[in-house]
Amino acid sequence: MNDPLSTSGLVIVDKPAGMTSHDVVGRLRRIFGTRRVGHAGTLDPMATGVLVVGIERGTRFLAHMVAETKTYRATIRLGMSTSTDDAEGETLTTADASSLIDAAIRDAIAHLTGPIMQRPSSVSAIKVGGTRAHERVRAGEHVELPERPVTVHRFDLLDQRIEGMFYDLDVEVHCSSGTYIRSLARDLGAALGVGGHLIALRRTAVGPFTLDQAHTLEELAENPQLSLTLDQALTAAYPTLPVSEEEGRALALGKWLSPRGLRGTHAAVTPSGRAIALVKESGNRLATVFVARPATL
């Protein structure tokens, strides 16, 4: 029997530099021949790497795709601060960073590791009064967003080199979702008294989705294919709960089951390997959070 969801799932794209996440969506709409394409976790135009894109019913799953952590490779330039905290902004300050001591750099990095309060960049996509912060900045407004708690699980210094008056650091950051690497660059430079900004950024992982699963747009244009089916996407993002075929049919109708003593959201999977729904216990019932395979399909 043909699977009505055979064309639904996720595409993990290795986004090139110079394109917005929306540009990637537009390209994939043409490649896959459907308007039902959406992305999760915006990447700035200068950034490359993992962009998670939903195709067909996979777009409905994106709202439930919780990626608690992300991993990045980045290059931070010490000795200059910019209006956008990255290389695309106007220069605000410069200072000679070439004489910085290695121990001071490592100490400043250590202070930006763990649970911290972070002020997002003023040119982020965070909405202020219904309008994205970067749009307000482009309109000439001064925007300073409030600090918020984030967690930097790992902030590793991979390489360092002096470029004239600048000190460039290649780093790898494993952090909670919502952490801004540009803000880390800005705050590291500020802590060292020389200013800092981001000159390169590559996202290597979003939750369980990594560059190993990613395709370039050129590869997808030649061979349009899902990185993960909807079944695979649900079970990659959530722990699984085995259910019978009969229970699966009930969940497909949006019905609830008896509680199982579960904590958190699980992907309910039938013996045939179909991920029917995301389920969560509430009170005395196991209820659906998202029905991936509704009975109406």
From TrEMBL:
Active site: 44 (nucleophile)
Domain Pseudouridine synthase II N-terminal: 29-181
Coiled-coil boundaries: none
Main enzyme class: isomerase
An individual GO BP term: tRNA pseudouridine synthesis
Keyword Translocase: no
A molecular function GO annotation: RNA binding
Catalysed reaction equations from the record: uridine(55) in tRNA = pseudouridine(55) in tRNA
Any single Pfam family the record assigns to this protein: TruB_C_2
Ranges where the tRNA pseudouridylate synthase B C-terminal domain occurs: 182-222
Biological role stated in the UniProt entry: Responsible for synthesis of pseudouridine from uracil-55 in the psi GC loop of transfer RNAs.
Protein's recorded name: tRNA pseudouridine synthase B
Source species of the chain: Corynebacterium canis
